[in-house]
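Service request form, structural biology core

Requester: graduate student, group of Dr. S.
Request type: structure prediction, single chain
Budget code: on file
Notes: please return the result as structure tokens.

Sequence provided:
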Amino acid sequence: MKYRNLGRSGLKVSEIALGSWLTYGGSVEDQTAISCVDRAYELGINFFDTANVYRRGEAEKVVGQALAKYPRESFVLATKGFGQMGEGPNDRGLSRKHIFEQVHASLKRMNVDYIDLWQCHRYDPETPLDETLRAIDDLVSQGKILYAGVSEWTALQMQEALHLADKYLLDRIVSNQPVYNMLNRYIEQDVIPLGLREGIGQVVFSPLAQGVLTGKYKPGQALPEGSRATDPSTAQMVERFLTESNLRKVERLGAVAERHEASVAQLALAWILRQPNVSSAIIGASRPQQIDENVGALRITLSESDIAEIEAILSAE
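Core staff response, request fulfilled:
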């Protein structure tokens, strides 16, 4: 395993992180989820990501249960807050009330004394940003959370958060969790430049474009049975990537992967990790073997000619 700093912080996180979105606490049996966490830990993954809204807290419970056997100092536990967790008017958002209540609820569900990285799951236009930042700063001072981050914030929103933190001497955010993969590269325009300039590390999710970058979907062929594209609960998230153009690109990427004796999925992860501003790439796994496959990406070193060839494939119509 290889490790990188989380943004400008001194915290070291594994280049591959294990997430629990769409999997743990629901669609994957608890014992299988625990086996996945165990295998990730064995391979040197020390970064585990979840969120309060994943299965309304059930994912946090499973992740906490799985990690309970390991020394607390040996792993980095990340969770998030913002989404709807009840029926009341204050059961969502980034108000001081909701943040405090959900941080303590997450601590209880995961059965830990502190959260390494707590992230604002989305931006809240209904709460003053200084209120959110002060609540986070208080929780850092109390030792309930160690580092703060955000997810899917724009560069302008993060810049304003940094400005207010510096103005009022509040704890700075050190990470952002955006979607990033070969087929969705929006963060390259202004999010990554901000991250490089201000020390905000990207902890990217959906690195395999909901499975499209595994190569299992073929142009002109029926969708594989049991895949996310055929599951009514996840099909909508996959559909936008399932264009003929994208599937042809994935086929062409196969030739680059073969030269490295790798899978397309491994190539896709290695391509993401070429970015120095990426602190970690979050993978999902419904069985332990998938973790072995994804960690294999770390042995790939892409040359400048590889990257140029990949760019030509991705930019083709």
